[in-house]
Design goal:
The chain has 9 helices and 2 strands, in the order E-E-H-H-H-H-H-H-H-H-H. It is mainly alpha-helical. This is Translocation protein sec72.
Length: about 220
């Protein structure tokens, strides 16, 4: 029926119980047999899709129409982040990690119809903060992973996360990676003082290692 060039108003009807759509009886005598056959095929495909959607079970159910952002969830995420910050200021870094983790869990499980940009804003800060807490515990691999996740959520305007991963890589002795990472960070963040200083420190360590090898 897709190759038709004219518009025809076709009387349709819907079954109140099954919700299946079909052509009204008058269509059988109004249109040609070929037309009715094509119409029947298209309606069957539509009804089949309807039945398939109704057969889905959680978590694959069709989401409800878009609704405003749940303010309670946003408030809880902010509260968890602030609780993590409070624990960090008390030097209770392991507890801070837990609070940031809970905040991330809540932010990353927002319904799919809520704005993705909101999720990115929430998780980039939480990942970056948790990276810093990991660094205070000397957990460089964990800090590097969280800082990278923060950058993935927000590449520009996120100098702290660029710095923190670079610092973790340097502390792990992965100097070439650290130099490359910090250089990329400067491309996004411009002349960021902390990144410039870190790059100099990394290059200084690379120079020292080269001198040791050449000695």
């Amino acid at each position: 029926m897709s190759d038709l060039e004219t518009f025809d108003f076709i009387p349709l009807q819907i079954n109140p119980q099954s919700k299946a759509i079909s052509a009204a009886p008058s269509a059988a005598t109004t249109y040609s047999a070929a037309f009715n056959k094509a119409l029947e095929a298209e309606l069957e495909a539509l009804n089949s899709l309807h039945r398939s959607l109704h057969a889905l079970e959680p978590p694959f159910i069709v989401p409800p129409p878009p609704v405003p952002v749940n303010p309670k969830r946003s408030a809880n995420i902010n509260k968890l982040r602030e609780s993590g910050n409070a624990e960090y200021r008390k030097q209770r870094h392991a507890e801070a990690v837990k609070f940031y983790g809970l905040g991330l869990q809540m932010a990353l499980t927002r319904p799919a119809w809520e704005p993705s940009q909101l999720v990115r804003e929430e998780v980039h800060a939480l990942y970056s903060n948790r990276a810093q807490a990991h660094m205070q515990l000397g957990k460089w691999p964990e800090g590097a992973a969280d800082a990278e996740a923060s950058v993935e959520a927000k590449r520009q305007g996120n100098a702290k996360a660029w710095y923190r991963r670079g610092k973790c890589l340097m502390e792990m002795g992965r100097l070439d990676e650290a130099r490359e990472w910090v250089a990329r960070g400067l491309e996004f963040e411009g002349e960021e003082k902390e990144l410039i200083e870190l790059l100099r420190e990394v290059e200084g360590r690379l120079k020292e290692e080269k001198e040791k090898r050449d000695a």
